[in-house]
Design goal:
alpha/beta, DNA polymerase, domain 1, TIM Barrel, 2 domains, ten-stranded mixed sheet, two-stranded parallel ribbon, 11 helices, 20% strand, elongated, binds S-adenosyl-L-homocysteine
Length: 353
């Protein structure tokens, strides 16, 4: 018999699921605390539950978890984990220690269907959506690692492999579940959701009333260049993405972050910087410039340092808040999908795609 997984359920769902085993409501709450606050992955160690109930639970239920398949750590502490899911597929999760706390980057899909030319996650297309439990298990895994140092995950960026708005319900329930007091009690403001620009999803998110930070992968100030980099631009061109981002900004009262991956000779010219400044001048916006992590098979390269600085200066001169993303973990292939890609390529039989 297939066991029912409890990780990813809200407490009310856990209570309902375990009630047939004769477990009272407060037992359901204890289970939620074990899973979401103490990172338990089996029932044996749940010492405040009666032994006979633990045995019963073990027979009928499971707690979704991930296991480490590969790991790379950079000098600055950025650690990339390749985490195996229960079906043997694997996703990447990145821990980024900052002065202001620990940030974790989670994946929402195995692979990605967006087809952006500079991104390694999408080389084999989308394999499948992750469940709430699988997205959450990535945070729980990192929390467990951090608990050794008495630390925890303080913020989550939904910027790993996958397009979060293409897996909308699971991603939203993941955010909501992290927010629950019996879980990690995280504020909505400590979440950043990054999208390639799925306009209907942005509008839906604006209607949820949960003030997460929205990040839009822009990467070019014009439709011709953006369409070359990101096929999704043919469905939702720049002006429709900006309009949706503006609606999100006014609904949430939050500044939108625009990510701009700088690629030598493609989107790094002074004219393009000026055009970007013009587009953002009257918008509530932040720009995050990301020197591209070169993907050898696509022949895309990083601009010279001076060129990056020049691009930044043009934006700043136009009074636009812009930063160049700290070059964390380039040496460990921290860009989307690069570790997974390396591991998959190094195997004689690929486990996915
Ligand atoms: N699908 C979502 C979230 C995942 S990607 C999105 O498109 O926003 C997170 C960010 O990293 C995106 O802005 C993406 O375009 C960027 N990215 C992907 N590959 C990259 C690379 N090789 N170098 C720099 N940035 C990259």
């Amino acid at each position: 018999m297939e066991k029912t997984n409890l990780c990813g359920m809200f407490v009310e769902e856990i209570i309902a699921a375990v009630a047939p085993l004769g477990l009272e409501k407060y037992r359901g709450r204890q289970l939620a605390e074990w899973i979401y606050q103490r990172y338990a992955t089996d029932f044996a160690g749940m010492t405040n539950l009666p032994m006979d109930k633990r045995i019963l639970l073990e027979e009928h239920f499971s707690v979704e978890s991930v296991t480490l398949a590969a790991q790379e750590e950079a000098a600055d502490g950025t650690t990339k984990y390749l985490l195996a899911l229960e079906d043997g597929l694997a996703v990447e999760t990145v821990l980024m220690p900052h002065k202001y706390g620990n940030s974790v980057c989670v994946s929402t899909q195995v692979g990605c269907g967006m087809g952006c030319v500079f991104c390694a996650s999408t080389l084999h297309g989308v394999v499948r959506n992750l469940t709430v439990g699988e997205i959450l298990a990535q945070v729980l895994y990192v929390n467990q690692m951090l608990s050794i140092k008495n630390e925890k995950v303080d913020s989550v960026v939904i910027m790993g492999s996958g397009e979060p708005l293409a897996n909308y319900e699971q991603v939203l329930n993941f955010i909501r579940l992290c927010h629950e007091p019996y879980s990690m009690n995280m504020s909505y403001r400590s979440f950043t959701l990054s999208t390639a620009g799925l306009v209907p999803g942005i509008d839906r998110l604006a209607g949820e009333g949960i003030p997460v930070t929205l990040a839009i992968s822009l990467h070019a100030p014009s439709n011709d260049v953006r369409s070359r980099l990101m096929p999704i631009n043919q469905t939702y061109p720049i002006e429709t993405v900006f309009a949706a981002a503006d609606r999100y900004a006014s609904a949430s009262g939050r500044r939108v972050t625009y990510e701009y991956t700088l690629i030598a000779g493609i989107n790094d010219s002074e004219e393009q910087a000026k055009e970007l400044a013009r587009l953002l001048k009257y918008r509530l916006a932040n720009v995050n410039l990301i020197p591209v992590n070169p993907v050898p098979e696509r022949g895309l390269f990083r601009p010279e340092k001076e060129k990056i600085q020049r691009f930044l200066q043009i934006l700043q001169a136009a009074k636009i808040t812009a930063t160049v993303r700290r070059e964390m973990g380039t040496e460990i292939r921290a860009a989307c999908g690069q570790l997974r890609h390396k591991v998959l390529n190094g195997k004689s039989s690929q486990r996915s795609a």
